[in-house]
Amino acid sequence: MFGAFDYLIGINITPKNMNIYLDNAATTPMASEVVDAMIPYMKEHFGNPSSTHSFGRKTKNAIEMVRKSIAKELNADPSEIIFTSGGTEADNMALRNSVVDLGVTRIITSTIEHHAVGHTAEFLKKYNNVEVAFVKLDEKGSVDLKDLERLLANSDKKTLVSLMHGNNEIGNLLPLDIVSNLCKTHNAIFHSDTVQTMGHFRFDLKETEIDFITCAAHKFHGPKGVGFLYVKKNNKIESFITGGTQERGHRAGTVNVAGVVGLGKAVELAFGDLEAHQKHVQGLKSYMKEELVKINPAIAFNGEQDEAKSLYTVLNVCFPENEKSGMFLFNLDINGIAASGGSACSSGSNQGSHVLSALEKQNPCQAIRFSFSRYTTKEEIDYALSKVKEML
């Protein structure tokens, strides 16, 4: 008990002006431009978009303009964009509607998916008698594509493949083109959770055919509580939430107008200077990796380390375990550095990371996820590194 407090002795409490946010995979700060775009739709333009009078037409028009702008960025049709409350609802819609409306009786997924996919697949297995198969992963946590092909070839059941584009904990990227082609070859439906990659990578959904992708605005400086599900137009689905006829009958409930406007602005900002953003953030990630190894050569990293196979916003660091490592995250926090020991969606849980647990040959370590955004600076990384050095 006293050892933990002894460890805190000598560590400076954070100066008031040093609050470093390195947990952007959990959520990102809203861009000021997003806030500015939303305010009029929380004050002056308050009409219900389902109303036919001028107040309703004003907000309806705003929603449709956002729908068109998102579709343009994805090379999709506006009718293929359904606004939701975020990524979790969108993932649920993709899986549940595939079973209920598209005749899916088998789901191929992985053990490191977000719980919005994993728990939904287990629910469908329990209550809808859906077969759930798990594709093998390599030692770094990447999907074994040969095993995926084997699973697709070995069944005549109507199959949904649900594999995330970018893992939220270790940052591994899925080769969407390859998986898309495998699914087409075997007549499988393909859903990819793109919550961590939307706003961070470009998508051409005419070039890379995917049946469902998902988005949460708060992962790229938009508001919380809004996102979308892309549904390829040949997939005819009914409303996941019943009630009204909003979203062309695909999602009942009054649309979150201000949220959708904020989402649209966040998409505009993200894709407006995406390449510069990618270069900036990848530079910070690479720099932090190099400096951490200089601090202690025993520090390792979880997940794929090839830049082409790894999400540039996420760095999962494996600090050597010792009697002090259990306090590592806590001491980062008291020094004003926000990071994560795993997925923020499971914060408060005493269970370890299901993603790290799924990796083979996982060395004992204190895993800390640092994640970056367009607003992260080198000075903030240097401050974080200095505190890590003190703690080690």
Describe what this molecule looks like in 3D:
It is a single chain. The protein is α/β, with parallel strands linked by helices and about 400 residues long. The chain folds into 2 domains: about 1-20 and about 275-390, Aspartate Aminotransferase, domain 1 (Alpha-Beta Complex), CATH 3.90.1150; about 30-270, Aspartate Aminotransferase, domain 2 (3-Layer(aba) Sandwich). It contains 12 helices and 12 strands. It has helices at about 1-10, 30-40, 55-75, 85-100, 115-130, 145-155, 175-185, 255-270, 275-295, 330-335, 355-360, 380-390, and strands at about 20, 80-85, 105-110, 130-135, 160, 190, 210-215, 225-230, 300, 315-320, 335-340, 365-370. The strands form 3 sheets. It has a 7-stranded mixed β-sheet, with helices on both faces. It has a 3-stranded antiparallel β-sheet with strand order 9-10-12, covered by helices on one side. Helix 5 (about 115-130) links the parallel strand 3 (about 105-110) and strand 4 (about 130-135). Helix 3 (about 55-75) packs parallel to helix 8 (about 255-270), helix 6 (about 145-155) packs parallel to helix 7 and helix 9 packs parallel to helix 12 (about 380-390). The protein is globular, with a radius of gyration of 22 Å. The two termini are about 20 Å apart. Mean pLDDT is about 90; it is low at about 1-15 and about 345-350.
